[in-house]
């Protein structure tokens, strides 16, 4: 039984088809709330709780006051750990195959302690995380999957380990330099993101017919007949300030080395009215990350 942070229960990764009864040793509950009823628990998602004390009001306003996951992070990490096997999946035809978690037959219990944007001290706190860990120990989980930057110095995790619960933390997304790894307490398992042996090459054609091969999740729609040329404009770091006063409407923006997370940069470009973005980087970096 795996404990996770927030979930979207309708995902096929959490189907309970073929599962037997919930184990008798399970002591958890199914806490109902906004957008979450007792029917959202199942033989796969066997329990759910949420903890909102001390969370900033602006974070709660953009989330469900329940175990339901609003920003997708808890859902994708839960499916990575314990998602059921889902056949014939792809991203618009890319990467076709079967999706499954590391332990696809494991049960899942949800302990939502991180809220809204999932970033900063206002989205969660020591109290919410420690309360979640305490309940997970009491409920009988075997593994706690905590894909977050620890705000409680891992002493709550030490208590769980002493009770026989394996605690898995994320190394966070500040790499690849080893000195930026977080959650390094010796009593937890710290897991870093890994690369995949797959690429999604895309050719960029310039007005002078020069072609440059990069990578992209862009794809042609079923009714697409081809691409059209758009003006290319240099956006520098593509921060909101650097784009201020630059007319990029309807144009493709070239962003150099960026300092903000890629989703923030993309939002800056789209908010400025651009039609596309090309991200140039001097060394290999994955722009789509957890």
From TrEMBL:
It comes from the Eukaryota. SUPFAM superfamilies: PA domain (SSF52025), Subtilisin-like (SSF52743). The keyword Glycoprotein applies. This is Peptidase S8/S53 domain-containing protein. Keywords: Glycoprotein, Signal. GO terms for cellular component: extracellular region. Residues 66-218 form the Peptidase S8/S53 domain. Pfam families: Peptidase_S8. GO terms for molecular function: serine-type endopeptidase activity. Belongs to the peptidase S8 family. GO terms for biological process: proteolysis.
